[in-house]
């Protein structure tokens, strides 16, 4: 997750260094040709690249807006995961009760809450196509780990275990039917959030749309030096680099935001959020073993 402050220029322009190098070489080549061969008959009026640049600007603005909407939706979903995880823990702590066997009930409650912590980590790693088992083994029993082997998506298996325990609590009389319905509604919201994340992950941003904008942008860059060379002379190259650099940065920003679950600094900080959920749920359980704080690397948190 990128922080608001201290983002180095090296990181920003490192994303477009090859594009800037190409533009600089191309600009120098056009300027040398104009100076040495005095070719003025192929100059292009600035109105042509201006109109094309305006069209590309509108397309990039629309694409950036769509990419940001995907990123913001992902963040909203994980905000709902935080709220529903806290709700689940609260319901488990205060709705499930058996005055005749409090020790068994306490173990039952702790098992469900720890499994919810595991679910958050499993979902985060699953969205990034990583094996979640090393991260969740300490939160679930060996028997439950074995049962998860039957599931390709471990977070789905963990929700099933939640549902099984809720049903067992109803049969044992630890909750009444109305309480069980409320607890199941929280599980339903978690499943809904899980499905929304998977939809974003599996829905590819239209490649043809990205390709057309990319080709139009390169065509604009090829035309732009012919319009700038007569206006700026030897200053054409730095002006060209500044203008094209702005376009490339906007395009790169949209590319990074459109996929919020790819384990990049611009991603939704799912593991950081999962650690915060773990901290809150363990405090609700009066557990003293808090998760390790996420290290900060200058301008972003380690995801």
TrEMBL record:
A Pfam family reported for this protein in Swiss-Prot or TrEMBL: Bestrophin_2
Transmembrane segments: 20-37, 43-62, 209-226, 232-250
Domain of life: Bacteria
GO molecular function (one): chloride channel activity
Subcellular location: Cell membrane
Membrane topology (UniProt): Multi-pass membrane protein
Listed InterPro entries: YneE/VCCN1/2-like (IPR044669)
Gene Ontology cellular-component annotations: plasma membrane
Main localization (coarse): membrane
The entry's keywords: Cell membrane, Ion transport, Membrane, Transmembrane, Transmembrane helix, Transport
The family this protein is said to belong to: Belongs to the anion channel-forming bestrophin (TC 1.A.46) family.
Protein name, as recorded: Bestrophin
Organism listed in the record: Dyadobacter fanqingshengii
Lineage: Bacteria, Pseudomonadati, Bacteroidota, Cytophagia, Cytophagales
């Amino acid at each position: 997750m990128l922080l608001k402050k201290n983002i180095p220029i090296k990181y920003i322009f490192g994303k477009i260094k090859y594009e800037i190098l190409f533009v600089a070489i191309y600009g120098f080549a056009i300027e040398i040709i104009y100076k040495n061969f005095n070719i003025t008959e192929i100059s292009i009026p600035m109105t042509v690249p201006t109109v094309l640049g305006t069209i590309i600007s509108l397309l990039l603005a629309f694409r950036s807006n769509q990419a940001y909407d995907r990123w913001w939706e992902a963040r909203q979903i994980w905000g709902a995961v935080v709220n529903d995880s806290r709700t689940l823990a609260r319901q488990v702590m205060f709705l499930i009760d058996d005055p005749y066997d409090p020790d068994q009930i306490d173990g039952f409650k702790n098992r469900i809450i720890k499994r919810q912590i595991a679910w958050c980590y499993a979902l985060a790693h699953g969205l990034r196509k990583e094996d979640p088992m090393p991260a969740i083994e300490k939160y679930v029993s060996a028997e439950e780990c074995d049962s998860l082997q039957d599931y390709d998506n471990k977070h789905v298996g963990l929700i099933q275990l939640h549902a099984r325990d809720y049903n067992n609590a109803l049969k044992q009389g630890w909750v009444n039917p109305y309480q069980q319905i409320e607890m199941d509604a929280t599980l339903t919201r978690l499943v809904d959030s899980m499905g929304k994340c998977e939809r974003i992950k599996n829905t590819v941003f239209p490649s043809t749309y990205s390709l057309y904008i990319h080709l139009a942008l390169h065509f604009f860059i090829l035309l732009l030096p012919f319009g700038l060379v007569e206006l700026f002379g030897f200053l054409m190259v730095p002006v060209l680099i500044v203008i094209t650099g702005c376009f490339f940065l906007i395009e790169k920003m949209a590319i990074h935001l459109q996929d919020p679950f790819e384990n990049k600094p611009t991603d939704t900080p799912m593991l950081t959020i999962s650690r915060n959920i773990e901290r809150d749920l363990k405090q609700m359980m009066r557990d003293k073993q808090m998760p390790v704080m996420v290290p900060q690397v200058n301008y972003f948190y380690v995801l």
